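Following up on my earlier thread - several people asked me to post the actual chain instead of describing it. Fair enough. Here it is, all 134 residues.
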Amino acid sequence: MDNLLIEATQTTPKVILDSGNNLFEISGESRPENTAKFYNPIISWFNNYRSVLYFANKHFGVPAKVSVDFKLDYFNSTSAKFILDIFFELEKIHKEGYEAEIHWYYDKRDTDMKAAGKEFSEFVPDLPMKYFSF
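Reply from S.P.:
Thanks for posting it. Predicted structure:
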């Protein structure tokens, strides 16, 4: 499966979806002008990755662990909807029997970002989520 790598801009986060190295990260600011155009390829990537996990497990017995690091400094309300859609894709992976979890990073002074992570987790209560402050 092809990796999805998007460099950060002033309005969009850096995205690393590297299945070969089991590295999944979304970091920076998220306030794209066209949020759907930015996030839909990411959501589609995770949807396709579910098929790859199924194939690898069925044919090669490869267990999967998907830990996605969210290291967002800021996101707007439109981005929140798409971030939640990514959470829903990860929840599907988890419900299909694979290890999937979210790592939510936040500045220890930014209580709003920590609270946002907690709010997201309420929509996917079965998906493990770990919090890391820096």
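The chain is about 45% helix and 30% strand. That should answer part of your original question.
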